[in-house]
Amino acid sequence: NEVRREFLTVSPILIQVAVEALRDPDKLVREWAAASIQAVTDTFIDIDFMIPVREAESLGQDMLVERVDVIREQIRQIEPVIKSLQKATLPLAQHSVRTESDLQTRLECLDIIEDCVVIRRKLWTVEYALANALRKPASNQLAVDPLPFGPETDEVATLVVKGFSDPNPAVRRAAAQAFE
User: Fold this and answer.
1) Angstrom distance (rounded) from CA 6 to CA 178
2) Which of 57, 79, 94, 133 maximizes the CB count within 10 A of its CB?
3) What's the CA gap between 67 and 73, in Å, rounded?
4) Would you tell me the crossing angle of helices 27-46 and 61-96 to the nearest 10 degrees?
């Protein structure tokens, strides 16, 4: 599908450029940058990974392995976008705590982090469902993860937690939703 291919090609570039634009002095540029990343995460949240997994679970063992390979290939295809989101998470968290910055962009940054958590949860659900269908133990690590790991994980979490003490109640709510 041409639209899918274009989305998968353009989104990593868009995310990278939009993260840079969060530092722009113009408020509208920052708002549009965050909205652009949000559009990418909204698309991923709308994808129902579980439909093909449910189909795979109802197949015979010979067809099951083939279907699982197709699902894993589809996840491999989205890997560049997921990795771009992973790289964007720390700058988004950093921007969300800049109290001198505009409120709308700060909230959008926290919403994007929350979306990354939802996408991660979906990917884990697929991982467990595939392992269950194949009657194998699930992996202890996602092949692609929209959230950082290692020291950046702690830094992102610390920054989002910092939002709990923000003077603006909307930021406090958005920070809490990111951990939901």
Assistant:
1) 29
2) 133
3) 10
4) 160
